[in-house]
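Q: Predict the assembly, please.
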Amino acid sequence: MTEYTVKAYMDHLMNEELMGVECKGCGHLMLPPRPICNKCGSMDLAWKRFGGEGVVSAKTVVEVPTTRFQERCPYGVVIVTMDEGASVSGLLLDEKVEIGSRVEAAYVKDEYGVVLAFKAA
Amino acid sequence: MTRFHHRLHQDKQGRELFVEAALEAAESVDNGFAFGDADALYLGYFSSDMFERQGHTAALMADWLGMNPKPAIRVEDACASSGVAVNAGVQAIASGMYDVVVVGGVEKMRTMGTTEVTDTLAMASDANYEAGVGFTFPGLYAAIASAHFSEHGSTWEQLQHVAIKNHVNGKKNPKAQYQETVKEIADKLGERKGMSFRDEMEFLSSPLNPVVASPLRLFDCCPISDGAAAVILAADEVAEEYTDTPVEIVGIGQASDTMALHDRDDFTSLRATRVAARQAYGMAGIDAGHVDVACVHDCFTIAEVVATEDLGFFAKGEGGKAAAEGRTALDGDKPINPDGGLKAKGHPVGATGAGMVYEMFNQLRGQAGEHQIADVEIGLAHNVGAAGATATVQIYRRG
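A: Predicted assembly structure:
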């Protein structure tokens, strides 16, 4: 069984650690982790700690939310390309952040668990 | 197909909508058709489980059509459910296993309020890594729009031409949810609110067109709809028993991509569309230039722009400009969504792919009425699941 589970990733987030995996076969980075490399198919993977900093590649401000995020509305969501290379989605904590802005990871805890978030670096 | 609508079907369940659509399909067969003639049913239904608290819907629909004991297969690939069902039906016939299949889709969405529908649609994204950080389904396409604006210089104003055009087309389609132009809606809402608008663009920029997920506003988004569509597919050898003027499916394609948008190399293009189109064009022996009319998956205005680029109709980054120039209008050189598209025709998720086939059938038989495109030989239908983790393409030719 793989150790690179959703639960393991979320547990790391709860500890304010951003953990993905690195493929030992081809060097590809995956964030969040997954059990099979989606570039070369290798299962020879290792945990990879991400520094949490990156650049915003896409952004929206949601005005019609899902139930979980209703009380935050309106709120931003971004796709961040991490300095190490992989991209990941996160809640946006700083309205002034735009595409091209540098951001750093933050960890928001709510009644459902933990949410990966980003704020201006 | 039924009319797609947000209010009209409130007293009907999914089963009644699907039966209504299937009966119309059967009645449209020139030489007559009985459901007992079919070898199988392929049904697209995204989320009967959430919307109607009903699972096992393929068997239910086959039962309600009187098709027992013929096999019934439900396909769930988000908004591409019935596009995939069509391809599955084609493959079943091409394999030689079946001669005739009924294919269709249905979604009964208006059982819920907007927040619950938003929750349900967000399940078609990655529930942990996209919905779990706040993405909604409109939010994902808004992110695509933001990247498209940033990388290709396209603009929100260009996107509005997609909505305006699709409402013009929807007005000509008796099956469409919205049979009003944006200008007519602007005048009506403006009168109610004591406002007047010089033109569509002024209305679309006003608070009467609220932001759903920036930069996308309400009129950038397809509506929530109830509806069903059904078509009948037959092997070449038996089709002539049913009609002298069939429409041929000459190419199909389907592809998958990463579930999460963030895992892709390019946020401004759907690779699944590009791959599915390449397969379908290859099978049909044509290229994008041969397509006379297309139904593309415009769940959001940006989605139509991206689709027309990914399908090869316009160069990358030129889709918005082409829409603004009127090239995709009914009288343009590449008419897109003559039926009003998802934007104006409506988007009962599981019915959309089959609804596009309904339009192809009518366009290629010259019976599309007021929104008929002149002299069409080749049509293309393009159906996308959520933010592009699934895409299907079919090429249709006048028989």
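The CA atoms of residues 13 and 74 of chain A lie 24 Å apart. Residues 6-14 of chain A form the longest helix (9 residues).
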